[in-house]
Amino acid sequence: MRLKDKTAIITGGASGIGRAAVERFLEEGARVVIADYNQDQGEQLVSELTDHQGRVAFCQTDVSNEAQAKAAVAFTLETFGRIDILVNNAGITRDAMFTKMTEDQFDQVMDINVKGVFHMTHAALPHLIEQGSGKIINTSSVSGVYGNVGQTNYAASKAAVIGMTKSWAKELGRKGIQVNAVAPGFTATPMVEKMPEKIIGQMTSVVSLQRLAKPRDIANAYLFLASDEADYVHGHVLHVDGGIMM
Hints:
By secondary structure, the protein is an alpha/beta fold. The chain has one domain (7-239): Rossmann fold. Helix content is 48%, strand content 15%. It is built from nine helices and seven strands. It has a seven-stranded parallel beta sheet with strand order 3-2-1-4-5-6-7, sandwiched between helices. Helix 1 (16-27) crosses helix 9 (215-226), helix 3 packs parallel to helix 4 (103-131) and helix 4 packs parallel to helix 6 (152-172). The mean pLDDT is 96.
């Protein structure tokens, strides 16, 4: 039980990579709050996790909204009494070639992928500082490292997450708080699986391992960084991309 008696908030935890992370953390003994905008999916997931009742709860949260981020932190403290791990996993895409990208598409991605990470961390930080410990895991992307066609907004947002991660690592390490990021590659989430086979084939072709990541592959990286085994990993961006050749 690598996370026994630890409490985690996982944003975007109702589906995809976030759901896989919720399941892995529960398997390893954690108490988990699923902070997600989709109430139906969140409540359905809690009802399905019958083996973990009493250790998992749902809080409807729009991470781009500062008040809702604060409410999610307050809910977690009220429900489980503490916060040990914050996984800033929530994110969206609004892909378009740059010449056709609208300001609204750009702003939507920035609001969730950047401001959402800011709001959730800012809300949780006073508690983490007071207890003198905590682990913050931010979700970036290989697009934030290498860029990607049609993803000016998404790549910019994920590059910003790396910048925040490294800045917070410099500020918070002395307070006992570890900050790291995970940069997933192409991952077989429900959204990706709906793409045409030709596009999925093109995505797979640039991966050295010749397959897309499973959500559980990314969740395992979160788990490592959240565990005691990663106690001396700090300010790091962990690529989980199957060896993307770019």
